[in-house]
Amino acid sequence: MNRKPIFAANWKMNKGPSETEDFAKGFLPNVEHKTFPCDIVIAPPFVSLAKASEMFGNVSSVALAVQNCSQFDAGAYTGEISGLMLKEFFVHYVILGHSERRAIYGETDEFINAKVLKARELNLRPIFCIGETLEEREGGKLEEVLRRQVSVGLAGLEEKGLGDTVIAYEPVWAIGTGVTASAAQAQEAHAFVRSLIAEQFGADAAAKVRIQYGGSVKPGNAAELMACPDIDGALIGGAALEPSSFLGIIENGTA
Ligand code: 13P
C-alpha cells in the first residue's frame, strides 16, 4: 500500500503572528512552487492563523492545521474556538487528543471522540493523537492503553471519516525529552495500531490509514524512523520551530 507520508509541525504554544511571519519568510523559498512526495502541515497557535493563512494560503505544498477545536459549533463556551470559525482560515487539519491536552487539561477519550466526530462533520481532517506514558509501558499496559484510545476515540467514525483522519502515535515519554522511541519500538506500536484499525474498520481501511510517529523527531533520526513500513510521517514539536530543521526532517524522511 502506497501511503503518502505526512509531516506536520505542531508549534504548541509558540510563535505569535510576528514569529510566524519570520518562520514563513525562511520556509517559503524552500517550499513555494515545489512539489513534494509528502504532505506538509503547519499547526500554529490560533492567534497566528490569520498570519499563517496570509503567508501560506496560496502555497499548494503547505496545509494548515490547528491544535485543538471545540466539539460545538457556537454558543456559550467561553475560551473555545469552533471548527466552523476555522473554515475562514484555510485550515484543513485539526490536532485532537494530544497527550498534553489529555494530561494537563483532563481531556478524556470520550471528549476527544466528540471532537473527532465534529471535525469530520465539518470536513476537517483530524490528526488524532494517541500514546502511552512511561509508567503504562513499563507496567505492560501499552496495548491496553492504545486499544482504549483507538476504540473510544474513533468510535462512530465511518470508513470515509477514517480515511480522512491521520493517526499520530506519540509515546508520552518521547515527547520533548530528546528520547526517541527506537525505530523497532515505534514500528511495533504502529503495526499494533494498524491491527486495531483493521479490527474496528476492516483490513482495507487499515492498509490506507496514515499513522505518524511523534516524539523527539529530528533531522538525524527521521530517515530511520520513516523507513519503517508502518510509519507514514511525523508529528514534530521542537524541531519544527526552525525552518531548517523542519525541512531537514522532511528531506531526510522522504529521501
Ligand atoms: P517533540 O518533537 O518536541 O518531542 O514534540 C512532539 C509532539 O508532541 C508533537 O505533537
Shape-level CATH architecture: Alpha-Beta Barrel
Strand order in the sheet with the most strands: 1-2-3-4-5-6-7-8
Q: Which fold name fills CATH's third level, the topology?
A: TIM Barrel
Given the C-alpha coordinates, what overall shape results?
Answer: globular
Largest sheet: 8 strands, parallel, barrel
Bound molecules: 1,3-dihydroxyacetonephosphate
Instruction: Kindly state the percentage of residues in helix.
Output: 40-55%
Tell me the name of the CATH class. Answer: Alpha Beta
Q: Count the strands?
A: 8
Domains counted in the coordinates: how many? 1
N→C terminal distance = 18 Å
- Element order, helices and strands? EHEHEHEHHEHHHEHHEHEH
Approximate strand percentage = 15-25%
Report on the architecture of this protein:
With 255 residues, the protein is of the alpha/beta class. The protein has a single domain, classed as Aldolase class I (TIM Barrel, Alpha-Beta Barrel), CATH 3.20.20.70. 45% of the residues lie in helices and 16% in strands. Strands 1-2-3-4-5-6-7-8 form an eight-stranded parallel beta barrel, surrounded by six helices. The longest helix is centred in the C-terminal third of the chain and has 19 residues. The chain is globular, with a radius of gyration of 17 Å. The mean pLDDT is 96. Bound molecules: 1,3-dihydroxyacetonephosphate.
Short précis:
This protein is α/β, with parallel strands linked by helices.
Keywords:
binds 1,3-dihydroxyacetonephosphate, alpha/beta, TIM Barrel, 255 residues
